[in-house]
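Q: For a teaching handout, I want to show students what a protein-ligand complex looks like in token form. Below are the inputs, and the small molecule is thiamine diphosphate. Please produce the holo structure.
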Amino acid sequence: MSPDNLGTYAENTWCPGCGNFAIMNAIKASLQTLAQEGTPLENFVLVSGIGCHAKIVDYINMNSFYSIHGRTIPAAEGIKLAKPDLKVIVFSGDGDSYGEGVEHLIFAAKRNIDITVIIHNNRVYGLTTGQYTPTSPLGFKGRSTPQGTNELPINPLELMLATGATFLARGTSHGIELLKNIFKEAILHKGFSLVDVLQVCVTYYNMYEYYDKRVYELKEHNSGDYQEALNKIREWDYNSDAKIPLGVFYKKELPTFEDRFLKPAGPVISRETKIKEVLKEDI
Ligand SMILES: Cc1ncc(C[n+]2csc(CCOP(=O)(O)OP(=O)(O)O)c2C)c(N)n1
Ligand code: SF4
Ligand SMILES: [Mg+2]
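A: Here is the structure, written as tokens, with thiamine diphosphate included.
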């Protein structure tokens, strides 16, 4: 494991032009910077689900855990609770964590566990060849919906804000400099952080042109104001043709799950002693 060379021997099987390359290059750069600034690479664990996105852990030479579809978050939470000093970074798909595993995402945000979740949100099931996901727009035509979907997408950042996430950001796979900065900030944040990356799947849902025309970077960010963050998050609902804000929407320091769960327990006392104490109080 060396910050200068994080590559592996594994053959890369992503399609040429896939947005996953940008996420991989950005996270490598962020981790290299963090290593130079004093956090050894051994202190990180990368966790992935199942999908095209998940192969990222095969391509980065660091400690990692390949979990199962929809269960990246519980795996990451287990690692964090067993070894709270580790920095745990999850790579998950929109199908993986906004679909099958959404309940885990909600509860991880609710308890503000100190992990970083990076969603490769290509708004399609890439690996299984083009079915719709919770963030596909209304009318999306794919393998399972040849006539177009009849459902509106969810806004995952709105869901995460409502359920208690303390760091929320969005980037795209066409903006690697912004991604590097956001990833680093998300990893350094103490608490549950989620970065929704509009990652383009060139094969099943090529949105490069669409995003390039609409994205803009937020000037003011790092807001800990819930209503302000909500207003920004609602500017684009994953369905409309509105402008798409990128950057950090929300950032707030609050006690984490580990702070509460792992605090030293009081001395163990027997049931008999406890009863005696209670009886004394009654006298
Ligand atoms: C428990 C379980 N359910 C379903 C699948 C089938 N499956 C594998 S990958 C996938 C979807 C992947 O989509 P996403 O998470 O968006 O990742 P992408 O390929 O787009 O990166 C599905 C449904 C599985 N392997 N395991
Ligand atoms: S199918 Fe899509 S997400 Fe999967 S590797 Fe190819 S371009 Fe990337
Ligand atoms: Mg996907």
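A: Two things your students might notice: The chain has a mean pLDDT of 95. Residues 20-36 form the longest helix (17 residues).
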